[in-house]
Amino acid sequence: MTRYARLISELINRSDGHMTAEQIFLELKNTEPKVVQATVYNNLNALCRDGLIRRLSVEGSPDRYDKIQKHDHLVCKKCGSLSDISLNDLTDDLERQLGGGIISYDLKVFYLCPKCRDSQ
Amino acid sequence: MTRYARLISELINRSDGHMTAEQIFLELKNTEPKVVQATVYNNLNALCRDGLIRRLSVEGSPDRYDKIQKHDHLVCKKCGSLSDISLNDLTDDLERQLGGGIISYDLKVFYLCPKCRDSQ
DNA sequence: CTTCTATTTTAGAATTATTCTAATTATAAT
DNA sequence: ATTATAATTAGAATAATTCTAAAATAGAAG
């Protein structure tokens, strides 16, 4: 594990998650002024590949990177804002329905966040 | 509903889904040679906004567009290939856990497709 | 059926996110 | 120290999508 990989992984796991590559790059640059975007992308890809972080594809926004620890997401249908939730684990249920072979799953629940609900 | 909006919506609902904007554009061009990419993007955005199709964000691939009719997705962790599955509906369960306010949800189940499983 | 207005479409430039390439630097192994 | 391997850099390149302004079209009102 290289210096930058470690720093990026720590940053993502320490943060409240959901950071874009750009945000990670800017944050990292505060302490590591020489770092460059390609390095951030390289490391994010490697960390995802190795299962140390997870990538979150979000409509209308660049990919986000999140801690690996299992949790689900609540996504505002209107503004796209994200928050973490912990729902009952579905793995066993999915295994039963699909007959095994499941690696993981990604569950996004859409709703209207308080701000968007109020303003409409 | 304009001419192109209708054609695009029909195309997506007729297809087996999971088409990218590019694929839709090329397909549409067969019968409508004057159509242009921006029109396809404009209409896809409008159709998503109005709930007539749904957008599917997939890692490592441009957004895909799918029929609205409820179903879940099986995604190969390795090659990213997509297939439709019909799992038990979670809405009631989610409503119960979250206390209401749910609009919809998106469930992707990751596995290794037969091709990728065999080749590794 | 004309005129007016609003919306859609077009063409192509612009922007954004991400990857690629080749050179350089750092790390680890002998 | 020397070599081999992998990581990082800089910046160009690519891919996906959006924007802009002009032109075309459709629908409403007379």
Question: Would you write up a description of this structure?
Answer:
2 copies of one chain form a homodimer. With 120 residues, chain A is α+β, with helices and mostly antiparallel strands. Chain A has 2 domains: 3-67, Orthogonal Bundle (Arc Repressor Mutant, subunit A), CATH 1.10.10; 72-118, Dna Ligase, domain 1, CATH 3.30.1490. Helix content of chain A is 41%, strand content 28%. Chain A has a 3-stranded antiparallel sheet with strand order 1-3-2. Chain A has a 3-stranded mixed sheet with strand order 5-4-6. In chain A, strand 4 and strand 5 (82-85) form a beta hairpin. In chain A, helix 1 (3-14) crosses helix 3. The longest helix of chain A has 13 residues, at 37-49. Chain A is flat. The model of chain A has no long low-confidence stretch (mean pLDDT 93). Chains A and B meet through strand 2, helix 4 and strand 6 of A and helix 4 and strand 6 of B. Chain A binds a DNA duplex (30 and 30 nucleotides) through residues 2-5, 20-22, 34-39, 41-43, 45, 62-63.
